[in-house]
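TL;DR need structure tokens for one chain.
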Amino acid sequence: MGTIITFSSYQTRGDNYLKLAFFVAMANLVTSLLSTAIIFLVLGFWTTTSGPSCVEKSVNKLVDLIIKGVLSQAAWPPQGIIHKPPVEYMDWISQLPSQLQADVVRFSPPCSILVQKEKFMEGPGLAYVAFSQVISLFPGSSFWAIIFFIALVIMGLATLTTLLESIVLPLQRNIPTFEKYPKLIPVTVCLGGLLGSYVVFLFDDHLVPMVLVVIVVLQNLSLAFVYGIRR
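>> reply
TL;DR here they are.
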């Protein structure tokens, strides 16, 4: 909504609003398709590479448990199993005796792709967990990690700028004082945002629990008044 308000404030009477609205809708559609394609590419890459990394974690944990004496020497993984496809690791587990196989499965770290996907898709997990894990597997992962987090910072600044413009521009156009002093309204809006966030913090952390305590006390007094203190 901030983008639409900002764009519309620059238009003059008589412009082709249908054409402009179509342009904004198409631009939004193209960027949505690009972002969706990137997300599916990243998730596909993560799904493909998560198998070998899971096998490596499982083998390292099994070796550590065997050295500590928790598992028997019969559970020692074959040489070079981490460099082979994950299917061969699963075949090796299936050939173990039933009791030893149950112990190996019990001590192996959980690597369910569906479970991890559900965790990643909750809130910002897709950006901060899935993308970060995939980027760590790229060649030159440090470079791509820096680029990725710079992109996140730029995206956040762009969103804040758009929201600020949607508030500042109408005020500057309609209030003569703000139009005469254009730098006054951005400072006022930013200070108001800081003060507002502090007030919300106070309400969330202090006032809301206090209100709940008052409500509970009043409920107890009402019950004591209706039924009597002795009851």
